[in-house]
């Protein structure tokens, strides 16, 4: 039991340690029952002694703060967007331009997944999270600190005490996005179109209690303002991970060919990743060389996003069937004229729900755009309404599946 202020401090540190092992390392040190007991001991002490509450106590993550609007905040250092390449030839051309600009041989590159979420800037002072803001226009972004404090993979306290901006991506893991949409459908709400939209919308909530209910995850991918002069990008990100953050897979590459091999390897395992990614980032590891190369009007010269191609194919929607899932929920499935999409013959594609069909004004015999979401699941993106003729027919939901 807590008897002194020091007991409370020790308990908070232990709770933070247990939470880190549970949410970040996925290696729990104690059972959920024991954690809950200790959590409620801390909560009881804080209710009796509100003047003693530590800002990094796990009790401060619950949410419930309601903002009248989202204020704006200027970043300490600008948040840049990345230029893109879509092929090995374009990658080689970028590397040549970079080498010509540097007027020197280029050193090691670090490659990592390009996450498809919401970019976030975390600012720490004296080891404590002071503010969190979205990218915005790169100079000023929306302040969302009240929501970010509910994200368990973001430490409220780190051992590094100098001022620092840690940048990364807020996203919903695939399993959490699917669970969120299933819950929304059960409540009669429209599902989110994709995990990125859901992540952005969750960060922009005025009520942090809503954000707390959504299992957002944060992965750091870079630094902004930093008082400490790191020499290596990889070293800096490894140190950030040691401060309590999740880590991405970083691969060191010395040439265009090695970057291409890393891209191919990442593409192959992309369907099995826990998160959505739309490419790979290649960045110079030498931070001094980064600073000397600088930026163009909109992007850093020393980094590039190597994007995955999105193969879109057009075909005719023949009819819509109902599919019953394990939970008993009915999902509409579009039957298509067979078409090859990224090497696979596709004759059926998910439509998610009838709300989506109504919103898109999708009709039988429409010519539709089809992709393989995550290069695996066929999905109808939209109808090409300009190609409609008199053969179109409205789609109406059926209470029972068609056998």
TrEMBL record:
Q: Where is the NAD-dependent DNA ligase N-terminal domain?
A: 3-401
UniProt entry keywords in alphabetical sequence: DNA damage, DNA repair, DNA replication, Ligase, NAD
SMART domains in the record: LIGANc
Q: Which domain of life is it from?
A: Bacteria
Q: Which reaction does it catalyse?
A: NAD(+) + (deoxyribonucleotide)n-3'-hydroxyl + 5'-phospho-(deoxyribonucleotide)m = (deoxyribonucleotide)n+m + AMP + beta-nicotinamide D-nucleotide
Q: Where are the transmembrane segments?
A: none
In Swiss-Prot or TrEMBL terms, this protein is called DNA ligase (NAD(+))
């Amino acid at each position: 039991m807590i008897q002194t202020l020091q007991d409370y401090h020790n308990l908070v540190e232990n709770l933070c340690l247990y939470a880190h092992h549970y949410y970040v390392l996925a290696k729990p040190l104690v059972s959920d029952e024991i954690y809950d007991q200790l959590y409620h001991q801390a909560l009881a002490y804080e209710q009796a002694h509100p003047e003693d509450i530590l800002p990094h106590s796990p009790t401060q993550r619950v949410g419930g703060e309601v903002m009248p609007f989202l204020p704006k905040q200027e970043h300490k250092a600008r948040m840049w967007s990345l230029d893109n390449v879509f092929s090995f030839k374009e990658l080689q051309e970028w590397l040549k331009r970079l080498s010509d600009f540097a007027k020197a041989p280029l050193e090691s590159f670090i490659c990592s997944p390009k996450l498809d979420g919401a970019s976030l800037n975390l600012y720490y002072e004296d080891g404590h999270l002071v503010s969190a803001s979205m990218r915005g226009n790169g100079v000023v972004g929306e302040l969302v600190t009240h929501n970010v404090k509910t994200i368990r993979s973001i430490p409220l306290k780190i051992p590094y005490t100098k001022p620092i901006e840690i940048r990364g991506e807020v996203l919903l893991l695939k399993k959490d996005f699917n669970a969120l949409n299933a819950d929304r459908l059960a409540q009669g709400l429209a599902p989110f179109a994709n995990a990125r939209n859901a992540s952005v919308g969750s960060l922009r909530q005025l009520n942090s209690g809503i954000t707390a209910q959504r299992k957002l995850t944060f992965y750091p991918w870079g630094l902004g303002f930093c008082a400490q002069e790191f020499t290596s990008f990889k070293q800096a990100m490894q140190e950030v991970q040691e401060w309590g953050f999740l880590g991405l897979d970083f691969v060191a590459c010395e040439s265009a060919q090695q970057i291409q091999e890393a891209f191919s390897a990442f593409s192959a395992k992309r369907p099995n990743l826990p998160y959505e990614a739309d490419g790979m980032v290649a960045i110079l590891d030498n931070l001094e060389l980064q600073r000397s190369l600088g930026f163009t009007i909109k992007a850093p010269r020393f980094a590039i996003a190597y994007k995955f191609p999105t193969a879109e194919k057009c075909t005719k929607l023949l009819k819509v069937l109902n599919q019953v899932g394990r939970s008993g929920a009915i999902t509409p499935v579009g039957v298509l004229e067979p078409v090859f999409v990224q090497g696979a013959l596709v004759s059926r594609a998910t439509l998610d729900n009838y709300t989506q069909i109504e919103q898109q004004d999708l009709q039988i015999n429409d010519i539709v755009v089809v992709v393989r979401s995550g290069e695996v699941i066929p999905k109808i993106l939209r109808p090409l309404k300009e190609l409609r003729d008199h053969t179109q027919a409205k789609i109406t939901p059926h209470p029972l599946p068609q056998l």
